[in-house]
Write a structure and sequence with these properties.
This protein is α+β, with helices and mostly antiparallel strands and 386 residues long. It contains 20 helices and 6 strands. The protein has a 4-stranded mixed β-sheet, with helices on one face. Helix 15 (270-278) packs across helix 17. The mean pLDDT is 90.
Length: 386
Amino acid sequence: MKFLELEIFNDFKCIGSECPFTCCSGGWKIIIDSKSDSYYMSVNGPFGNKLKNNITTKGGDRCFALTEDGRCPFLNKENLCDLYINLGEEHLCDTCKTYPRYSFLAGDILFEGVSISCPEVADFFLSHKEALKIDYAESKKSGINDPKINWEVFNHSVRAFTTAVEIAQDRELTISERLTLVTLFSFQFQTYIDGKRDPSGLIELFRNHSGFSQILPQTGIYQRDIGCKAEFIAEFISLFRNMSSLYANLPELYELIRCLEDEEQLSASLGKWKLAYQTFDVEEAQIWQEQILVYVIYRYFMQGFERKDFYMKQVRGIILLFELIVSTLVLYHLKYDRLPDFKECALIVAHSSRIVEHSNSFADKVIEHFKTKGIMDPAFLFRLFS
């Protein structure tokens, strides 16, 4: 078995009561694994009674019964975990032990990372200046021997994944150029896989930086299309308007939606929109966008291996997460004529991740809507990235 770990996977430490938006109060369904559930039901005394009274079955899963305001019943007034205090860390359920860490298996590689839905993790990604590291390890246990796995396609997909990361971390390119190249490469790689063609030549082409000067002008991204960007934000945000949990999960967007309901804001000159987008062109903003893009590639691209839908998985992450963050920050700039400070940005990133990465039904709805609008097509995305 092989392992890939995105930087800070092993170094992350929860800051507990100091967290500005604790995972224990986000209204999430906290699933309890069977081993932990059996133990909780065996606990006696007053705390055992509290456990039995605050665990329920929902959708076939055993989970904690959240309070009316979406808090875990064991999160006390000091934002500390009473279950941890009374029973010890070893008796936390698997969900509470692992979050914000996540993992998924592709072929014989276990991809391990940390979710930016945690404000502390989002803070790291926004403040980290060096290129993110992806660590490799291999255990002595025998590898996966699944006859259904096409190992030739798998090896190509791993090379494609590393190529996409290399493009995302190429600081000789602007973030618009990197987004465009990653998207174009993912799309063309998908066509090769669909056509059962050897993508080796394509991969080598996109590993050759000198060739980008010929590829990029053909995409049209050097003609910045502010109108396209404004229309996308309006279309995107319209999907959030009727979301009942929007204020709890993404309060910044809840407030900023008024920008698009106000006729004066909606008809803001393209110059004002252009000024808002120019704030993302400075070096510091380019770096944190790079980190979010690498996060998206790491988390999504190889999840496409099982169904061979690399492009849709990759674009799903770019549209739902990367562009939601940017859209929210653009609206913030339109309303206040500035970007939020660092801590506010970290919360926007964390809130954005929570609303799209931990709500599959909503994310699926948005993607299906965008498919019918042609927003998932490379031609539209190149205009958006311009």
